[in-house]
Amino acid sequence: MSSGTDKGKGKSGKRRLSTRLTHAARDRKLTQGGVNPVVQRASTVIVESAAKLFEPGGWTYGRHGTATHEALRQCLSEIEGAEHCVLLPSGLMACIVPFLAHAEAGGHVLVSDTVYGPTRRFVDRMLSRWGCEATYFAPGIGAGMEKLMQPNTKLVFVESPGSMTFEIEDAPAIARVAAAHGAVSVMDNTWAGGVFHKPLDLGFDLSVQANTKYVSGGADILNGAIHLNDDKLLARLKDTVADIGSNVSSDDAFTILRGARSLQLRMERHQVSALHVALWLEKHAKVKRVLHPALDSDPNHGLWKRDFTGSSGLFSIVLEPMPTAKVHAFLDALKFFGLGFSYGGFESLAIHCDPQLKRTTYTPDLGGPLIRLSVGLEDPEDLVDDLEQALEAI
Ligand SMILES: Cc1ncc(COP(=O)(O)O)c(C=O)c1O
Fold first, then answer.
1. Given a cut of 60, is residue 103 above it in pLDDT?
2. C-alpha distances in Å from residue 336, one per residue of 276, 340, 386, 392
């Protein structure tokens, strides 16, 4: 079965993604004959000779990574079709490190207004302290980004679909403008799990993935990665990671790799189940709108179809106007959807978005309370039953 998710074939050529994920990082040097890599715990590294202590690029300390990290990097690079992968201890760190590497006093960055809240928090609180200006841009800007570029614009940070409201950006148009001005373009690609959207193929320099979500899939680990092809950008990112002393434990690297093996199969199930639930919700009288780019009714459906090969388990609904107490009654009545701030795990989740929905370039007016749903790996009929009884509880 060809899944239609094989854009960006990675280093191992024509094989399909689930095969590549199964067979990546299986070199005996990494596995010592097991199926999985060894969990190599190392702070101290014993080098073979005095000359090697200061060898440029040599492996001389645990923070440079171990065989387990190398195995994880090899596997993750297959997902995004990237030459290089930089590991970070959280998805948020993977969002922040490109800013740390490129923002400077007197510089300027452009950031999508629909960006993940804590990324905005970093931009608002830290960049201004360093004298780097930030401008947010409204969803749907595309080639119009040209007007916002300044001679000192160093970096363009995009999240598509947008956080909580799921607008799709015209990624190739944005990447073209950024490249024409010599700015580094970064895409937070977490929604698609890296499987259904390949920002590097669309012209982006860096693709960020919060492995905390779909890639690890177990709701029990925090991790992030930056994917890229360019050697110079890699050197700058590696320097930045060394500057801030960031580290990922070998045990975490092993656990994420185990999750990543089954990523594509899980994504396909998340996709089918979420669409099943979304289509049912679209017809419900108490639901005003469903914000899901893979639905025909979505205003960005055309862009999604052009640039994505599938959709994940995460989308939002706008309920008919009602007081907060009723929104809480709905959420509290849910049995299979836990109330929690994440997604990408095997279990379904729901949150009320309004208290945390921040935009700078416009005032969101969705016409009712906004609820984000993360559809997990339960049977979608059970999830529909759960939503039905909870909507009745309003
Ligand atoms: C789009 C997006 N990017 C980044 C992150 C940050 O990931 P982490 O929680 O691993 O720091 C999240 C977490 O919710 C996210 O939704």
1. yes
2. 16, 12, 7, 15
Same fold, 17-260 and 264-392: no
d(CA 76, CA 311): 19
Binding site membership of 224 for ligand 1 (Cβ less than 6 Å): yes
Q: Which of 93, 95, 209, 216 to mutate to test the pocket of ligand 1 (most atoms within 8 A of CB)?
A: 95
Do residues 320 and 287 lie in contact, with contact meaning Cβ atoms separated by under 8 Å?
Answer: yes
- Judge whether 63 counts as a catalytic residue: yes
Classified as helix, coil or strand, 316 is: strand
Single out the residue of 196, 158, 390, 358 nearest to residue 275, CA to CA.
196
Single out the catalytic residue among 6, 73, 116, 386. 116
Q: Which CATH architecture fits 264-392?
A: Alpha-Beta Complex (3.90)
pLDDT of residue 211: 98
Break the chain into its structural domains and give their ranges: 17-260, 264-392
Q: Which atom of ligand 1 is nearest to the CA of 223?
A: 10
Q: Is the model's pTM score more than 0.85?
A: yes
pLDDT tens-digit readout, 28-38: 999 999 999 99
The verdict on whether 261 is a catalytic residue reads no
User: Within 10 A of 155 (CB to CB), how many other CB atoms are there?
Assistant: 23
* Gap from CA of 93 to ligand 1 centroid (Å): 9
For 112-142, what is each residue's pLDDT tens digit? 999 999 999 999 999 999 999 999 999 999 9
Checking if the pLDDT of 23 tops 50, the result is yes
- Say if residue 14's pLDDT is above 80: no
Residue nearest to atom 9 of ligand 1 (CA): 91
Q: What local confidence, expressed as pLDDT, does residue 147 receive?
A: 98
Distance from the alpha carbon of residue 346 to the mean position of ligand 1, in angstroms: 17
Closest residue by Cα to atom 8, ligand 1, is 91
CB of 188 closer than 6 A to ligand 1?
yes
Architecture of domain 17-260: 3-Layer(aba) Sandwich (3.40)
Mean pLDDT of the chain: 96
Distance (Å) from CA 220 to ligand 1 centroid: 14
Question: What residue type is assigned to position 66 of the chain?
Answer: T
